[in-house]
Each structure stands twice: as structure tokens, then as C-alpha cells.
Amino acid sequence: MTKIAVVFHSGYGHTVKQAEAVAKGANATLVAIDAEGNLTDAHWVTLNEADAIVFGSPTYMGTVSWQFKKFADTSSKQWFSQQWKDKVFGGFTNSATMNGDKHSTLHYFFTLAMQHNGIWVGTGLMPSNSKAAKRDDINYVGSSAGAMMQTPSDASADEVNAGDLETARLYGQRIAEITKRLK
Ligand SMILES: Cc1cc2nc3c(=O)[nH]c(=O)nc-3n(C[C@H](O)[C@H](O)[C@H](O)COP(=O)(O)O)c2cc1C
What we know:
alpha/beta; Rossmann fold; 6 helices; 38% helix; 16% strand; globular; Flavodoxin/NO_synth; FMN_Rdtase-like_dom; FMN
């Protein structure tokens, strides 16, 4: 059986919805980075034992939150011993603006995964970009590098977009399928 972990930070409760959708698709364990940027020892064991790790963070000022970056820097311990080498990796982000520089966040996740010498998985989804496209279509935000969600700045966590959640679920499912094949 494959083990998948979704490690994420959410400052105000929106990105956690996306994390839950990815975890649902991947049948993964959720690992929440706390407000101080910390994980428990048990969380680190979960990550070390996982076949795949999916990173998640809101986009803040064009990149990951400082709490996620603290987690990333702490993972230098695993980097030193190449403990996460050849694991499968992916990433997702949520932000207020349709573009909002979300790709910078995904690019940071990709770089972190490559530092750990992992194997990156993109969405495998076509964008929904025709005249007939609707906001809650799958991959309406249109990302191939990892899953994106766009949440208006005044929306509550219960108002996150259903299509973006389904996009996240499908992405988790793809990561699980590829992890299984590799294993
Ligand atoms: C400090 C800060 C910086 C932000 N920077 C961006 C940004 O660069 N681009 C963007 O589209 N939204 C930005 N936002 C909006 C958040 O990405 C958005 O509110 C998101 O839904 C927050 O997710 P969370 O509830 O999981 O923290 C920012 C919000 C905060 C608090």
C-alpha cells in the first residue's frame, strides 16, 4: 500500500479546504503546519515514511507563507541525508487574485522537491478556457505545474470554489495513481 502525506499551511482557513480535497483524492494523511511554522515529531515521521509528499500553502506576497518556508528550511535535515530522495512530490496553492503570482508558489514547491531529489507530478489536466467555460469548471484557473485555487478576498472558508476543490481532488488522485505505478 502506498502512503501519501499532504503537508500544508493555511493562515485563515481557505487553503485547508484545498488540502482536504487533495487528501481525499489521494487517500492521504493531512499534516498541518501550525501558526508558528512547526510540526510535531509524529508529523515528521509521517513525512519520512511517505511514498509521496504534497506541499500546500496560500500564496502570500507572491510566494509561500513564512510558516511553510520555516517547514521547508527545517526539512534541510532530511536533505542532508537525502532521506526524501525518489519520493513523489506535488504542490497546490490558493490565493485571492485570479493570477496573484500563484505560479511563483508552485515553482518554489518544485524547487524544494528537486532539492530533495524527488519526482514531480503536474496536474495532467487541460485548462477550461473556451468561451463556454464556467468559473466552477475543472482547472478553470488553468495550471499544469500543480493545483491552483482562487478565493475572493472577502469570501469565507465555506465559499471556496467547488470546481477548484474538484481540481484539487483530481490532482490528489493523479498523484496517488502515479505513486502506485512507481512503487
Ligand atoms: C500576508 C498576505 C499576503 C497575500 N498575498 C497575496 C498574493 O501575493 N497574491 C494573491 O492573489 N493573494 C494574496 N493574499 C490573499 C490570500 O492568498 C488569500 O486570502 C487566501 O485565500 C488565504 O488563504 P488561507 O485562508 O489559507 O490563509 C495574501 C494574503 C495575506 C494575508
